[in-house]
Write a structure and sequence with these properties.
By secondary structure, the chain is α/β, with parallel strands linked by helices. Helix content is 37%, strand content 18%. The protein has three domains: 110 residues, 3-Layer(aba) Sandwich (Cobalt-precorrin-4 Transmethylase, domain 1); 97 residues, Rossmann fold (3-Layer(aba) Sandwich); 85 residues, Cobalt-precorrin-4 Transmethylase, domain 1 (3-Layer(aba) Sandwich).
Length: 328
C-alpha cells in the first residue's frame, strides 16, 4: 500500500522583513499625545487642539474618539473654558497672544527641540543678525519659527540652489537655523554652501535637526542597500516620513514607498520581492508597523529581522499643569 506523504512546505514565497530601529514615535510626539490625553483626563471633554497634534491620521482619529476637537485656527473655537492645545510643531507668537486676548486656557505641546530653534531665532534677531532658516515652505514648524520674528528678519532657504544665490544684507552679520525634520544630508550640503560663501555665518551650538530624525535616517541607511523595497509608515504631510523615503532611495533601495496603514499597501508593486525594509516616521504609532508586518504574513512566509543602529532613551516632561493628572 502506497504511503501518503504530506508536504509541510509553505505555499507562500519566502520574504525577509528588515525592521529598522529606531523607528516611530519620538519623545516630542510621545509628549504631545500625552498632553492631549492628560488634558482629557484632568478636565474632561472637549479639549480643543489647534492643528493636527502630530501628522498622523490614526493618532488624530484616536484622540477625536476620546473627546479632542481639532481646529485649524483659534477663531473656530467657541467661547469656552476648555483647554486649547497647540501642536508639537510649534506656533507663531501671534497664536498664544490671540489666545490670551480671549482669556483662553492654553497648553503648549511644542516639542522642546522645536522650542530650542525658536529661542535661537529670537536670540539671533536680538543680536541684530540676519537669519537664514533652512526648511520647507508652508510646513507648520517653519510657519511657527518664522512667526517668532518680525517680518523680514529671516529668509527661508529650501534648496542648495537657493543657498548659492542668496544675497544677505551684510555677510558679516548672518546666522542660520534649520527645521528639525529635514534630510541630514541635504541640510549638510546647504550649510556647507552657506559656510563657504559666508565664513562668518553663525550656526547653532548643537545641531537643530532633532536626534530622532537623525537616528531614523541612519537606521534606514543601514537596511536600504539590502532591500528590494522599503515601506515607510507615515502620513503624506509628515516631513520626517517623506525624508525617510528619499533617504531609502538614495541609500540604494530600488523602491521606497510611503504607506499610511496596512489597507494602503500597493501589493502589485511588491509581488516579486525577497527582502522588504520597514520603518516608521516619528509620528507613526507602532501598532501600524505591526499591522503591516501581519499583512505580509498573510501573503508570504515571513522572517522578521530587527536591525538596531542605536538605542533611544530620551523623554520630555509634560507641562506642570498636567503633571498631577499624569501621576494619577
Amino acid at each position: 500500500m502506497a504511503q501518503l506523504t504530506v508536504s509541510t512546505q509553505s505555499p507562500y514565497l519566502p520574504l525577509t522583513i528588515l525592521v529598522a530601529a529606531p523607528r516611530g514615535f519620538c519623545a516630542g510626539v510621545d509628549r504631545a499625545i500625552k498632553i492631549v490625553e492628560l488634558a482629557l483626563k484632568k478636565f474632561g471633554a472637549p479639549v480643543y487642539v489647534r492643528h493636527e497634534i502630530v501628522h498622523n491620521r490614526h493618532v488624530v482619529e484616536s484622540l477625536k474618539a476620546k473627546g479632542a476637537i481639532f481646529v485649524e485656527e483659534l477663531d473656530e473655537i467657541p467661547e469656552t473654558g476648555a483647554p486649547v492645545i497647540f501642536s508639537a510643531h510649534g506656533v507663531p507668537k501671534s497664536v498664544p497672544a490671540a489666545a490670551e486676548a480671549r482669556n483662553m486656557f492654553y497648553v503648549d505641546a511644542t516639542c522642546p527641540l522645536v522650542s530650542k530653534v525658536h529661542m535661537e531665532a529670537r536670540a539671533h534677531q536680538e543680536e541684530g543678525l540676519e537669519i537664514v532658516l533652512i526648511g520647507h515652505a508652508g510646513h507648520p514648524e517653519v510657519i511657527g519659527t518664522l512667526g517668532q520674528l518680525p517680518a523680514g528678519a529671516a529668509t527661508l532657504i529650501e534648496t542648495a540652489d537657493a543657498a548659492r544665490t542668496f544675497e544677505p544684507r551684510d555677510p558679516e552679520r548672518l546666522a542660520y537655523i534649520t527645521q528639525t525634520t529635514l534630510s541630514v544630508d541635504d541640510t549638510a550640503a546647504i550649510v556647507a554652501i552657506l559656510k563657504a560663501r559666508f565664513p562668518a555665518i553663525v550656526g547653532p551650538r548643537k545641531e537643530d535637526i532633532c536626534y530622532a530624525t537623525t537616528n531614523r535616517q541612519a537606521a534606514v541607511k543601514a537596511i536600504a542597500p539590502r532591500c528590494d523595497a522599503v515601506i515607510v509608515v507615515g502620513a503624506p504631510n509628515s516631513s520626517n516620513s517623506l525624508r525617510l523615503v528619499e533617504v531609502a532611495e538614495r541609500a540604494g533601495c530600488p523602491k521606497a514607498l510611503l504607506v499610511q496603514q496596512a489597507a494602503d499597501i500597493p501589493w502589485s508593486d511588491l509581488a516579486n520581492i525577497a527582502t522588504l525594509g520597514i520603518t516608521a516616521g516619528a509620528s507613526a504609532p507602532e501598532l501600524l508597523v505591526t499591522e503591516i508586518v501581519d499583512a505580509f504574513r498573510s501573503r508570504f512566509e515571513v522572517t522578521v529581522e530587527s536591525v538596531v543602529t542605536t538605542e533611544e532613551r530620551i523623554a520630555f516632561n509634560v507641562p506642570r499643569e498636567l503633571r498631577e493628572a499624569g501621576a494619577h
